[in-house]
């Protein structure tokens, strides 16, 4: 019983320390627009099975929105955006109706600072062919933000 309690405490204290899928940073670049802050990231890739995680950090955000669009060539890809918090993470799921349409769009006005993970999961796939997808992410608005991934930091 004591071992189970320690394991549960470790999972709560460090949600990213457990076994998981593969991951990589979601790399944003700053785009110059008149009177508007824009950071954009785009990924074109494929997934044959399991899950894949894209990580980034919003260090500061004020009067901006976070938009994530995911398109796939087939049904079966589920996605969620997780803002890792110390005890209770904020989880934003793609609506079920849009998953069947092979499109997911999440928009978060005034996102909080923190570590974010976009988790793609293909665990319910029946075919052996890979599923191709495109991710478009943006932090935009009239305010300011600081977005980081790995050791790179971009500031306005």
Short structural summary:
With 156 residues, this protein is mainly beta.
| Element string (H = helix, E = strand) | HEEEEEEEHEEEEE
**What class, by secondary structure content?**
mainly beta
Instruction: Provide the residue-averaged pLDDT.
Output: 81
Total strand segments? 12
**Shape-level CATH architecture:** Sandwich
The CATH topology = Jelly Rolls
Uncertain spans, ≥5 residues at pLDDT below 50? 2-19, 151-156
Query: How widely separated are the two ends?
Result: 50 Å
What's the domain count? 1
Proportion in β-strands: over 45%
Biggest pleated sheet: 7 strands, mixed
| Percentage of residues assigned to helices | 10-25%
Morphology call: globular
Tally of alpha and pi helices: 2
The CATH class: Mainly Beta
Based on CA atoms alone, the radius of gyration comes out at: 17 Å
Descriptive keywords:
156 residues; mainly beta; Jelly Rolls; 7-stranded mixed beta sheet; 5-stranded antiparallel beta sheet; 2 helices; globular; disordered C terminus; Lipoprotein
């Amino acid at each position: 019983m004591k071992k189970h309690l320690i394991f549960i405490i470790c999972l709560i204290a460090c949600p990213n320390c457990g076994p998981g899928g593969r991951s990589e940073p979601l790399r944003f670049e700053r785009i110059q627009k008149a009177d508007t802050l824009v950071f954009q990231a785009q990924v074109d890739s494929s997934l044959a099975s399991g899950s894949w995680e894209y990580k980034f950090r919003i260090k500061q955000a004020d009067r901006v929105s976070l938009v994530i669009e995911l398109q796939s060539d087939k049904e079966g890809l589920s996605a969620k955006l997780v803002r890792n918090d110390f005890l209770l993470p904020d989880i934003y799921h793609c609506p079920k109706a849009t998953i069947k349409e092979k499109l997911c769009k999440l928009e978060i006005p005034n996102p909080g600072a923190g570590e974010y993970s976009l988790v793609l999961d293909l665990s319910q796939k029946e075919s052996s062919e890979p599923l191709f997808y495109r991710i478009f992410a943006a932090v935009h608005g009239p305010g300011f933000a600081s977005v980081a991934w790995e050791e790179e930091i971009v500031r306005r």
